[in-house]
Amino acid sequence: MSDDEEEIILSELSDDDLVAQMMDDLYDGLKEEIEEATNILLERGWTPYDILTKSLVEGMRIVGDDFRDGILFVPEVLLAANAMKAGMTILRPLLAETGAPKLGIMVTGTVKGDIHDIGKNLVGMMMEGAGFDVYDLGINTDVDEFMEAIEKYKPDILGMSALLTTTMPYMKVVIDELKTRGIRDNYIVLVGGAPLNEEFGEAIGADAYCKDAAIAVETAKELITRRHNQIAH
Ligand code: B1M
User: Fold this and answer.
1) CB of 59 sitting under 6 A from ligand 1
2) d(Cα 142, Cα 58) in Å, to the nearest integer?
3) What is the model's pTM?
4) Which of 33, 64, 109, 129 is most buried, by the most CB atoms less than 10 A from its CB?
5) Which CATH number fits domain 10-101: 3.30.360.10, 1.20.950.20, 1.10.1240.10, 3.30.365.10?
6) What pLDDT is recorded for position 233?
7) Cα–Cα distance for residue pair 216/212, rounded to 1 Å
8) CATH label, 102-233, candidates 3.40.50.280, 3.30.420.40, 2.60.40.1180, 3.30.310.170
């Protein structure tokens, strides 16, 4: 650090300045700073959800824009992703700790060919917080792995994530396999990821496209309730 450069003490920043600093630090892939700032906001009474959405997700949006525009490259984005994951690691147990009654089981994974997992992980964390048991198959998940997992865990919900236009069609491969096996209607299929939209969700035969993690939770709760009501009648 040069003499005229002042060290930033994160704990001395106002909330707004701290959130702005977190976005800079995420952009620069500074994992420890993200961890420290996440803890500071928690101490100041911020909810885990607000920290996630207002600083981490928003920071990653900026990284995404600059990645798209050729200002950032894969190694830098990887560092940013690691910093984001470090913040999420702190928030995860807090989100899960709500004591919500058990609502159901979800199997989730990022589809074959795709290694993006931040969004999927975030959805998983929020679903756990809402009372779902989540079995996460990780990234690059092929149709056989999805089929094995649904046999093993007997979920209510199958959630798939894709971040690439080249991998999103694979979601249909999985849904078609459920149809071939005659078990499509046994599961609520939710899909999500930045390049998807509602029309795509409909076209591939999913039950719903979820724009973000909060919508995934809302949709899951709604569809589970509807299903229980149908079974009861
Ligand atoms: Co990638 N990448 N990337 N990348 N990357 C994108 C997706 C891209 C849009 C960037 C860009 O150009 N602007 C672009 C895709 C373009 C396209 O397909 N049209 C892209 C590319 C091109 C690539 C590579 C091909 C780059 C290369 O190698 N040349 C490569 C692909 C590798 C592969 O998968 N085979 C690649 C690699 C990577 C990294 C490894 C460096 C890293 C991933 C690290 C990781 O995930 N562990 C990375 C990142 C971080 C991104 C961006 C910048 C950020 C994604 C992210 O984490 N967002 C992304 C840009 C962008 O999306 N604008 C980009 C934050 C996250 C919270 O949001 O994932 O959208 P998101 O999840 C949201 C919702 O979408 C929804 O809820 C989440 C939370 O609110 N949701 C679901 C997501 N999944 C859901 C599932 C559900 C429900 C809701 O089911 C129930």
Assistant:
1) no
2) 30
3) 0.94
4) 109
5) 1.10.1240.10
6) 66
7) 6
8) 3.40.50.280
- Is the minimum distance from the CB of 159 to ligand 1 under 6 angstroms? yes
Q: Give me ligand 1 centre to Cα 81, in Å.
A: 10
Provide the pLDDT for residue 5: 60
Which residues have CB under 8 Å from 43's CB, separation 6+?
none
- Nearest atom of ligand 1 to the alpha carbon of 106: 91
Segment-wise mean pLDDT, segments of 10 residues, the chain, 233 residues: 69 97 97 98 95 94 96 96 95 84 95 97 93 97 98 98 98 98 98 98 98 96 91 71
Q: Say yes or no: CB of residue 68 within 6 Å of ligand 1.
A: yes
Instruction: List own/partner pairs for 172-175 with CB under 8 A and 24 or more apart.
Output: 172/204, 172/205, 173/112, 173/143, 174/111, 174/143, 174/146, 175/204, 175/205, 175/206
pLDDT at 97: 79
Q: Whose CA is nearest to atom 39 of ligand 1?
A: 78
Judge if the beta carbon of residue 84 lies within 6 A of ligand 1: no
Task: Note the Cα 27 to chain centre separation in Å.
Answer: 19
Q: Is the CB of 204 under 6 A from ligand 1?
A: no
